Amino acid sequence: MVHLLKYERMSAVARPLGRMLACAIEMLNGQIGAELMVVAVPLFPSKERQRGYNQAVLLADAALAKLKETQPEWKLRAAHSVIRRVRDTESQFALTTHGRRRNLKGAFAVRDGATLAGREVLLVDDIYTTGATARECARVLRRAGAAKVWVATLARAQREMVEFWDAEQEQGSFKDTALR
């Protein structure tokens, strides 16, 4: 379903997926602060125009709507514009953990005038693979004054060794890869 949302332009699946994400976020009850800024991982503007939407924003908004119903005592507000992607990056799909971190270094910035001092932030993304995106966004948010950054993702990619067979060479090799 994440693939449908992200690559097949089926934005309608974001609502039920976001509501599922809200159920997981509810497990933080008692751990998170009374006020929480909900921030979706931003896409580079040209990528968002190409896709037609930011899937993380759709997931975050659906989760937020559900949480406002089920957790009325939580003071939640969407603050997606707090962070922006300032540099277009290469696709993370085939990169190693180190390559992903290097690729994202300096790719995000907090918008001028954003007030984060002492605030708790819930960062929402679609997939957690190596943590490089979450780590870089959290670093930028913390440097801007956020007291704590929680990360919620819809899915976690598993890494495993996959054997690739070269029929011409009659030999196999193993590669560490993320399942998608």
Automatic annotation (TrEMBL):
Residues 57-160 form the Phosphoribosyltransferase domain. It comes from the Bacteria. It holds the Pfam family Pribosyltran. Signal peptide: none annotated. Belongs to the ComF/GntX family. This is Phosphoribosyltransferase domain-containing protein. The lineage of its organism: Bacteria, Pseudomonadati, Acidobacteriota, Terriglobia, Terriglobales.
